[in-house]
Amino acid sequence: xxxxxxxxxxxxxxxxxxxxxxxxxxxxxxxxxxxxxxxxxxxxxxxxxxxxxxxxxxxxxxxxxxxxxxxxxxxxxxxxxxxxxxxxxxxxxxxxxxxxxxxxxxxxxxxxxxxxxxxxxxxxxxxxxxxxxxxxxxxxxxxxxxxxxxxxxxxxxxxxxxxxxxxxxxxxxxxxxxxxxxxxxxxxxxxxxxxxxxxxxxxxxxxxxxxxxxxxxxxxxxxxxxxxxxxxxxxxxxxxxxxxxxxxxxxxxxxxxxxxxxxxxxxxxxxxxxxxxxxxxxxxxxxxxxxxxxxxxxxxxxxxxxxxxxxxxxxxxxxxxxxxxxxxxxxxxxxxxxxxxxxxxxxxxxxxxxxxxxxxxxxxxxxxxxxxxxxxxxxxxxxxxxxxxxxxx
Length: 393
Description:
Layout: E1 7-11, E2 16-18, E3 27-33, E4 36-41, E5 46-51, E6 56-57, H1 59-64, E7 71-74, E8 78-84, H2 88-94, H3 96-121, H4 131-142, H5 146-159, H6 163-180, E9 188-190, E10 193-196, E11 201-203, E12 211-217, E13 220-225, E14 230-236, E15 241-242, H7 244-249, E16 256-259, E17 263-269, H8 270-275, H9 279-303, H10 308-322, E18 332-334, H11 338-344, H12 356-359, E19 364-367, E20 370-373, H13 376-391
Helix pairs in contact: 3-9, 4-5, 5-6, 9-10, 10-13
């Protein structure tokens, strides 16, 4: 490694390396020797992770410029490799194996976070593949979405090992084809680009694939669907990636991806990812994964609040921060509905009476598909009031 691209610093045991709610440092860390402890402070517990030699930390705040969400402390005497933000890409291009390990590690962390988020939103935490596709199909059937239902059962028979069930659904697929002349809807494809229209399925949870995607235009909804509900995990925007966990770690899709509006995607596979990756896309990969990690950690904190009104205010703040709305702006207009917000903050089952303090806030206006915050300063005061009340600080 080029020693001009990094420095090495020693930390004594119990030294605080990063403090929660402090300004992000313009660098990230690789553990050369020793161990560090990460503590994420929730309202009801401390979430603790131990990082060891070869592990990395600090990339999320470095790439997103967001405050640290956790405290990092040296649990032993340790040596850390410190890479400044402007040197990250040159540093990793000299050691692509480190690059792949970082992406793989952070993808695993993101998968674990998504799993924990699902456990807080769904009665059934996990259904064995490929039966989960039948749960998804049942949801689409209840939503009267025949094309989506057809897609889900078609994917089920592709992966099913239960011959009896497989035969039953194969017969249903043939019947649907004969009655409605329905077939799987394929995206328009050109030059490794794929065009999806609003509502089109890109992939479903537990599908297998060797591609991941960069959003060149449009938005993509990432969600977990069971037989009853569609739990939104994220709405990804232009310039973001998704699906990278499957290609790097060769595991099934951990969520569903559906076009939130007309969308153009750049499709990448393992060969193009490792051998032909332009620097611009490499930077975007890091920014995208860092942003999603930050967003998932913030959701994890959000779900630790017990009072639904706190979760609603805090989640709105999360969305505003993720969209990089400047604090000095007076008002804010968000293109999400109240139902979307309730789904994302896990308050969909709450009655209007339970969240009346939020709904009656004169600073907020809810219209079809939109939420307007008229005075951001007043909004931030409300967020602080409710979150501090639950944290007891």
